[in-house]
Amino acid sequence: MAEVITEYRNENTKDIDLLSTIDMVRKMNEEDLIVAKVVRDEAPNIASAIDMIAKSFHKGGRLFYFGAGTSGRLGILDASECPPTFSVEPTMVQGIIAGGPSAIINAVEGAEDNFNEGLKDASVLTDKDVCVVISASGNPKYLLGVLEKADQIGAATIAITCNSKGKIAEEAGHVICAEVGPEVIAGSSRLKAGTAQKMILNMLSTGAMIKIGKTYENFMIDLKAVNEKLKDRAIRIVSQIAGVSHSDALSALLKCNWEIKTAIIMNQMNTDVDNARLELKKYGGVLRRVFNKETAV
User: Active-site residues: which are they?
Assistant: First the structure.
């Protein structure tokens, strides 16, 4: 097999094992600076992917991340953080890793080479869903199986890779390619490639949630206030958006089971819980539409 870009040796770090610890850290940081620039260059492709995902959400579709090793774990991490951040159902954004749940903690050797397992795992998709495959090298047979099944089902496909010559870049309908160059340690794609993937996944899920009204301005208005820190945040959000005291914000939140948007409307419109919820429902659950009186599309 021809050598792929993620396996190249980095000329800038050949002496890393001879450096002092502080110089080692600086050398790694120098390489990390490349990542943000490369991801920035992919902004148009990332934006298009966000629009694809938001469109799917509006139609009742879901977002699935598939990956092996580090890439799979990053997909699962991003998916797992959507319910507490945006109060969505756990099924709305899901991460699936080659080798199954045990591969989250322990490496499952050979899992990325199993085409048939990719076919099998992707059977959860429907034609409303978006399938995102994640791989630094872009060549795992597992992901090629995922893409084949996604095509059969009619799901939209997006590849996130660091290798423009990788096979998933050829097979996916849409490609985000952050070519970060050779790793600090040759082949260790949990480093720069992993950082690039994490940045892109942050943008995809956050951007899509913003597009469907899960934020107001830059406030996290759909968070689940399940601990003291988040309850304090909820109080501050209601207070700032509704322009009321913390005590009034807390009073409203206690009456509506800590529903931030409901509490805001209660204060803004001087109404009770039931009417606030009805108002929110009338405008598709989007606070911005409530304020602007824009009916849901």
Answer: 81, 112
